[in-house]
Amino acid sequence: MCVSITNDKYLRTNQNNNMSEEKLTQCSFCGKSKEVVKKLVVSDNVAICDECIDLCQDLVNDELEEVKPEKEPSYDPESIKEYLDQYVIGQDSAKVVLSVAIANHYKRINFPPKDIEIQKGNVLIIGPTGSGKTLLAKTVAKYLKVPFVVADATSLTEAGYVGDDVESMISMLLNAAGGDKSLAERGIVFVDEIDKIARKGESTSITRDVSGEGVQQALLKLVEGTVCRIPGQGGRKHPGGDMIEINTKNILFIAGGAFVGLKDIISNRLSGTSIGFNASIKDKKIEGDMSKVIPDDLTKFGMIPEFIGRFTTTVSIEDLSKEQLIHVLTDVKNNYLSQYKYILSLDDIELTFTDDAIEQIAENTLKLKTGARGLHTEVERVLMPHMYHVRKYRENEIKLLNIDKEKVINPQSLYDGPQSSST
Ligand SMILES: Nc1ncnc2c1ncn2[C@@H]1O[C@H](COP(=O)(O)OP(=O)(O)OP(=O)(O)O)[C@@H](O)[C@H]1O
Ligand SMILES: [Mg+2]
Asked: Average pLDDT in the 234-261 region?
């Protein structure tokens, strides 16, 4: 029911309602009588109590909040890049390409042209492990305030085979959208480890390639835009339950993968040889550069041309340098150091790091070859004995823990005796 209270002369309160008609002595919404509520606002043929007004106000506020985010983000590529800069260190050219791709995608779906059809362009991010592929996609989704899911390509199989079929990604997106179909239809699906569904070499194709080429085939329609029917609230456990139709034509697919070996393929092409990626490149002068990738390289790697064709934007990201790792540690929002500072502050310990300690952590991390992900491992390794002994720190009223280079090289807490050297 919709009530509009527009004219003050019709409003009466229960303290001052001797003029109102007898019949309107109770709230038309909840039925409570004017005696039990604080205020009853009465118009010609409807009355509402203060409790229902509060409830309506909350409903309106909630709705306004839900609507606001869609209007908020700017689809200006430079603004998207500036936002990404706060969370992702380096990868500048990737950020530029991604920002333009994202801006165009959302311009296309928010302001569809009348007489032409703009083709959807999904995004493929290639680059080494732990250098920010998933982080880039996640941060974009956060900026756009759209639902976002990460699906692992290695767990996908063709429909009919054991494993998750590709449409399960859309179910995940609908869940992430809290069941809101129209929100899900503008979301982002990040398909991680896409390189792991590369077609296997000729020699292994005696049996059907269920987890490789088959999955690429199954993804084609979904990625391009199709209507898929997925189980509604009841989920797969209730096959008889409602099915929901989700159109994937405005869902942005971002695929990411490390594509180990692709550099060799690029290098071989640039050096004019057609040897596969396992060939030695010892004698070659040109080093493979991921940013020089062309679709044919990806086909040689094992991606089928139809699949590559649906990812019109290819973004390559680089290994992070030592300086960039230091920035990841100290500068980005939610950086690892702040996270551990917070954890130790819960035990009243202030955690500080000297500059050379941070540099040493970055140096050690480079050796792990797991990108920025290794920073987490390193910081954890360094702080482990201290975090284990927090109780002793507290009992002895030690309120400052300063990690210097020596403590990074040889992580030991003040209380590490021979008995705890197993840490
Ligand atoms: N460029 C970066 N800037 C800031 N943090 C980064 C960056 N790259 C990686 N990280 C940190 O490392 C973690 C792992 O990064 P991410 O998940 O993006 O790696 P990835 O490239 O997707 O690797 P993989 O190929 O193994 O999936 C992130 O959670 C983030 O904390
Ligand atoms: Mg990843």
From this structure: 79
Q: What is the pLDDT of residues 169-228, one digit of tens each?
A: 999 999 999 999 999 998 889 999 999 988 875 444 445 555 578 888 888 888 988 998
Three-state SS at 161: coil
Q: Which atom of ligand 1 is nearest to the CA of 192?
A: 27
Q: Do residues 336 and 130 lie in contact, with contact meaning Cβ atoms separated by under 8 Å?
A: no
Whole-Å CA distances, 390 to 137, 327, 343, 395, 405: 37, 28, 11, 9, 21
Q: Which atom of ligand 1 is nearest to the CA of 138?
A: 18
Model pTM greater than 0.90?
no
227 touches 105 (CB < 8 A): no
Phi first, then psi: give them for residue 191, nearest 5 degrees.
-95, 105
**What is the predicted pLDDT for the residue at 286?**
57
Q: How far is the CA of 131 from the centre of ligand 1 (A)?
A: 5
Residue 33 phi/psi, 5-degree rounding, is -85, 160
- Closest residue by Cα to atom 25, ligand 1, is 129
Q: How far is the CA of 190 from the centre of ligand 2 (A)?
A: 9
Best residue among 88, 123, 134 to mutate for probing ligand 1, ranked by most atoms within 8 Å of CB = 134
Could you tell me if 215 and 197 are in contact, meaning their C-beta atoms sit under 8 angstroms apart? yes
Q: Which ligand is nearest to the CA of 138?
A: 1
Q: Cα 164 from chain centroid?
A: 20
